[in-house]
Backbone:
């Protein structure tokens, strides 16, 4: 059943660069936020889902680098930081949660462009 779910999450090699760009753009937008609003929390959930879809797609396309695991971790950690923001009772707790989220988003911004490149590399390796 998990395999079926993973296959539903995947995109093909042609769509993967767009998905990677979307993850990067979402991370940039989220990183600029300074207030916890319902829209912001929804956007974190969307980012998490897209990061998981990127992970599953990379794995399904045979990318053997660490990227599928990295994006899976980014997906999970985004939700953890979202819950930390929701549960923050003080400005200090909120600032700490924002700082942790922004560090994660910075990683996504840096790593997302590597996803399309990794797919191209995997396709070349498959034809050798």
Residues:
């Amino acid at each position: 059943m998990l395999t079926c779910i993973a296959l539903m999450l995947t995109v093909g090699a042609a769509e993967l660069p767009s998905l990677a760009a979307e993850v990067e753009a979402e991370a940039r937008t989220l990183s600029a936020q300074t207030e916890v609003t319902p829209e912001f929390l929804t956007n974190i959930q969307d980012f998490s889902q897209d990061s998981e879809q990127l992970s599953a797609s990379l794995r399904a396309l045979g990318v053997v680098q660490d990227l599928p695991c990295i994006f899976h971790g980014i997906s999970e950690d985004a939700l953890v930081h979202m819950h930390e923001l929701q549960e923050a009772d003080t400005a200090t707790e909120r600032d700490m949660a924002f700082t942790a989220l922004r560090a994660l988003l910075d990683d996504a911004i840096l790593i997302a462009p590597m996803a399309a490149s990794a797919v191209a590399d995997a396709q070349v390796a498959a034809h050798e």
User: Anything to note?
Assistant: Confidence is low (pLDDT under 50) at residues 1-8.
